[in-house]
Amino acid sequence: GPPATFELAVSSMVLSIVVSIPLGVLAAMRKNGWIDMLSRGISYFGASIPQFWLGYLLIFFFSVRLDWLPVEGRGTWQHLVLPTLTLSLVLIALYTRLLRSSVLEQLQETYVQYARTRGIRERMIMLKHVLKIAIAPLITSMGMNLGKLLTGTIIVEQVFSWPGFGRYFVEAIFNRDIPVIQCYVFLAACLFIVCNLLVDLVHLYMDPRISSKGRAEQ
Known about the structure:
Number of strands: 0
């Protein structure tokens, strides 16, 4: 149901943000270094591996072979680990690649060169100026992916028998429960609209030039 889907969505989004933001920034600041190579490897692996296969691999190693984590279901934090890792890897790959590219682009801008000539430390330039602008495409992608996560990740929920929206939707299809299917599609559309609206509001807050430009055009 909704609590299970929300729990999985939030944990996956938090883990992907915590990992991808520092990894993407460090990869851009240490271009062609070992951190950059590591981020590229994670990005290529996460973007190319199917989620259902990754889920079965994690189950095989951590549940069957090592017997560290439960195979399926929901109840304790241990049940949350494997589906969260399965969903987060794809997001980490996407966010790291986006942020690295955006930071590298901003580092070539004139304001960064000017700040360096004034003797401002590289860390302060990154935190106060570069990251504030470079994170914009990441926020847009997060809004889109949060809409997907909140409507239920059908494949992952099926693999781990997670009792969320996605699994409920699949059961409705097999049972030919048309009202449930229609309600799911309507809810998914509403969630995507709300997430996109929130992304626009965050952009407006982070970059006041957007509202100034809109007023100037009027």
